[in-house]
């Protein structure tokens, strides 16, 4: 009976460990998107501070073309599903700030789920240790 219980616990622990790893990966991805959104806002703000801006435009395989930014008035935003919109700088910043708030909520949710998974993992380890101790005492 205790051997079956130990097998069940081990399977649950393995599933929880995989879930925890997935949550950690998601959290890392969310932090990357958050950094990218913050950098985009800073870049848009810096465009309005300098009258003539030089930029490097990627053309592929780590190759860039130097260019001048002629218009700071319009920003093209990818809003998902292959759709992009042209917005003025202030609207683009507002959109990105709203996305940042969504990302922060997702990070908090993921961190809470990660914490719950860690607590369940710890409880599972304790149960397995108790089963091992009970089994060793009965033998």
Description:
By secondary structure, this protein is an alpha+beta fold. It has a single domain (21-138), classed as Helix Hairpins (Orthogonal Bundle), CATH 1.10.287. The protein contains two helices and four strands; from the N terminus they run αββββα. It has helices spanning 2-49, 89-138, and strands at 53-60, 63-69, 74-80, 83-88. The radius of gyration is 25 Å and the shape is elongated. The mean pLDDT is 89.
The neighbouring-strand order within the major sheet is 1-2
- Named at the architecture level, the CATH assignment is Orthogonal Bundle
Q: Classify the beta-strand content into a percent band.
A: 15-25%
Q: Tally the helices.
A: 2
Order of helices and strands: HEEEEH
Mean pLDDT: 89
Count every beta strand, where a strand is a DSSP E run of 2 or more residues.
4
| Alpha-beta classification | alpha+beta
Q: Enter the CATH topology name.
A: Helix Hairpins
- Distance between the amino and carboxyl termini: 14 Å
Quick one: overall form?
elongated
